[in-house]
Amino acid sequence: TYAWFALNLAWAALSVWLSAAACRVGFTARRVLLAACAVLLWRPVADLLLYGQATLLVATAGLVAAWCLARQRPVAAGLAALVTASKPQATILLLLGLMVWEWRRGSLRFTLACAASAVVACLAAVALAPDWPAGLLHYHPADAVHDYWGYYVTTRILLSMALGEGRLTDVLYGAAAAAGVCAMLVLWWRTRVTPLYPAAITLAATPLLAPIFNTYDYVVLILPLVLAFVVLTRRAAPAAPLGAAALGVLAWFATSADRWLRRLIEPDPVWTAAQRVLGEEGTNRLWTYLRWDSRFLALLLPAALLVVLIVRRQDVVAMLEGAPAAPASSEAH
Question: What is the pLDDT of residues 22-42, one digit of tens each?
Answer without folding.
Answer: 887 766 666 667 777 777 778
